[in-house]
Amino acid sequence: MTALLDALSWAGPVDLPLECEADVQAACGLMHVHGRALGGPARLGLDYASALAGELAGLARLAVELSVARGGPVRGFTTSVAQAGLLAVSQHLAAATASDGGAPPEVHAPGGPPFTSAEGVEFELEALDAGVWLRFWTSAGASPSAVASGWRSFLHRSATASCPLPAELHAVAAGHPLPVLRALAEDTGMTLVRVAGRGPADLPAHRVAAPGGAAPGPLAPASGGLPLDGLVVLESCRRVQGSLAGGLLRMLGASVVRLEPPGGDPLRFAPPVVGGPVALSAVALSPVSGATVSAPPVSGAPVAAPPGSVPPGSVPPGSVPPGSGMPAVSARFHALNRGKGIAFADLSTPDGRERALELARGADVLLNDWGPGRRERWRLGAREFAAARPGIVHAHVSGWGDELGPTPPLGTGCAVRAHAGVPRSPMTLVDVFGGVVCARAVLDGLLRRVRSGSGQVVASSLRSAASRLNAVSGLSGGAPSVPVCEDLAALARDPAFARAVEFDGCALPGPPWEFLT
Questions:
Q1: How far apart are CA 382 and CA 516, in angstroms?
Q2: Alpha carbons 430 and 127: distance in angstroms, whole number
Q3: Mean pLDDT along residues 292-311
């Protein structure tokens, strides 16, 4: 079974004469977001929208194969480079159209990493803890005022695609040779990554293995108009990469239930927010009570969910009923997670562990991005989930994979991009691309599950996704023939994007494919 030959176009549902990569980057907001750190709209250093569209097309082809293998009606798809471009800016589009009057205005100004050492070597820094940031820069000789004023911008750089920093920090970095800076980073817990030239392009995008043991029966047959209709995904992810993968699986028709800590993922409440007035943190939900949702599921998607959780579209005890409007939620979080059910568990406790295994007994896929050592510490690895649910596809997504040992440096998109030599951008290029790579890994596992009858273990990483991006991306010439978007809120209101952008508390790209039966 092959997809339609004309499955991939430039414009798709966007009613503009888009004929090349430059047109898509200009019209769909990529130049605008990428240029925030440069002082104005600018072309990315790679044909990112085209590369992402190719990966989305590959994901759709696997989805069509899976639908056919399960007896479903889906026989083809269409997608476009423009839809890929909108997916790349989805969190920025959501934030720009959120009517959160209480959120402080975002500052988009030029500047930011990488830093340069005394020898002229460029390097990236990464820290998720203010104490690490303080210790490193204080040890390097920066003033308290420069350290303090730079932290908030640095912490939120991936969310805002902007990171203006005091000039003093760059000057302090330039006053030390790289070996001294590396020693300071090691002493203070800072991650320091030298910016590489073009990195490897031959790493496998994902790895897959069968742990053994036959499933008790075949996957549920497909009957709806979406390829993953009838399948259930249990997701426990905090970062863009895994959450986007879960969101793509939902848009392909799966019921996705997020496993979050009691009270909800803290990122759920980061400004700007949409919805309300009731916040999820104020809802009376115990760690093992049901699930709630942030939005209805994709049209045609199933409502099956693991036992003990509540599927999209239903009302769990103590949650906000549909008539009350959706709970207040971060616009950026909403862009990745709308339509997913929610269940709660503290995985560090015995009760939370049992809760996770209980939910997995009703799932076809377990998707997680747990950090190094947590699976072993919690006793929630592939073996435990396979015992609870024979035939399950266990998918793990990480920053570095296994190549850097059991205690790798922080595996964020910024650090991995620098290490892999992906062209510089303040956008989450590797994270978004990694989400699509992860979703493809899951579908590969599901296809093998259908064909072999046994469960699968799949793994992907930002590092493997960056290698894949290096392999498939180029840089074409030419200037755009359409106006350059300089306001994402205006883009969302533009009638030319009416069939590509949806409104659900804020503007969000629609699914990046249309499936044909």
A1: 35
A2: 18
A3: 37
**506 vs 328: CA distance, rounded Å:** 12
Q: What SS3 state is found at 317? A: coil
Question: To which residue do tokens 């925030």 refer?
Answer: 36
pLDDT at 57 over 60: yes
Running DSSP on this structure, what letter comes out for residue 109?
A: -
Contact indicator for 422, 430 with CB cutoff of 8 Å: yes
Residues 6+ apart with CB under 8 A from 277: 325, 328
- How many other C-beta atoms lie within 10 A of the C-beta of residue 192? 23
Structure confidence at residue 328 as a pLDDT band (50, 70, 90) = confident
Percent helix, strand, coil in the chain, to 5, is 40, 15, 45
Helix axes 130-140 and 144-155, enclosed angle (nearest 10): 140
Q: What is the pTM of this model?
A: 0.90
SS3 category, 18: coil
Burial label, 120 (beta-carbon count in 10 A; 0-12, 13-18, 19+):
exposed
Domain boundaries, the chain: 8-101+202-516, 115-194
- What is the distance between the alpha carbons of residues 195 and 341, in angstroms, rounded to a whole number? 39
Q: Are 202 and 328 in contact (CB under 8 A)?
A: no
- Secondary structure class of 459 (helix, strand, coil): strand
Contact 424, 374 (CB under 8 A): no
Q: How far is CA 261 from CA 340, 342, 506, in A?
A: 15, 10, 25
Measured at the CA of 381, the angle between CA 376 and CA 387, to 5 degrees, comes to: 135
DSSP-assigned beta bridge partners for residue 514: 78
Distance CA 24, CA 18 (A): 6
CA diameter of the chain: 65
Measured between alpha carbons, how far is residue 510 from residues 62, 255, 312, 331, 370 in Å? 20, 17, 18, 15, 28
Report the distance separating Cα 338 and Cα 246, nearest Å.
10
Q: How far is the C-alpha of 247 from the C-alpha of 305, rounded, in Å?
A: 15
How far apart are the C-alpha atoms of 225 and 301, rounded to whole Å? Answer: 8
- Alpha helices (runs of H) in 453-487, residue ranges in sequence order: 462-472
* Lookup result for tokens 């350290």: 147
Taking the C-alpha atoms of residue 148 and residue 280, their distance in angstroms, rounded to an integer, is 31
More confident residue, 447 or 212: 447
Length of the chain: 517
Question: Can you tell me the distance from the alpha carbon of 460 to that of 375, in angstroms, rounded to the nearest whole number?
Answer: 16
Judged by DSSP in three states, 260 sits in strand
Which tops the pLDDT comparison, 297 or 146?
146
| 37/46 Cα distance (integer angstroms) | 17
Question: Which residues, including other chains, have CB under 8 Å from residue 319's CB and lie 6 or more apart?
Answer: 283, 285, 290, 292, 310
Q: How far apart are CA 10 and CA 22, in angstroms?
A: 11
| Phi, psi angles (nearest 5°) of residue 166 | -60, 140
Topology of domain 8-101+202-516, per CATH? Rossmann fold (3.40.50)
